[in-house]
Amino acid sequence: MESNQIEQQKQQISQLEAQVASLKAQLEDALTTAGAQGGRRKKIEEMSAEVIDSNPYSRLMALKRMGIVENYARIRDFSVIVVGMGGVGSVAAEMLTRCGIGKLIMFDYDKVEIANMNRLFFRPDQAGMTKTAAAEQTLRDINPDVDFEAHTYDITSIDNWAHFLDRLSKGGKNGQSVDLVLGCVDNFEARVAVNKLGQSWMESGVSEDAVSGHIQFIIPGETACYECAPPLLVASGINEKSLKREGVCAASLPTTMGAVAAMLVQNTLKYLLGFGEVSYYLGYNAMTDYFPRYAMKPNAECDNKDCVKRQEEYKAKLAAAPKVEQKKQEEPAKPKHETNEWGITVVDDEDEEEEVQVPVAKAQEALPDGLVRSFDAAKLDVKAGDIVQTDDALNLDDLAAQLKGLSS
Ligand SMILES: [Zn+2]
Question: Which residues form a coiled coil (predicted)?
Answer without folding.
Answer: 6-33
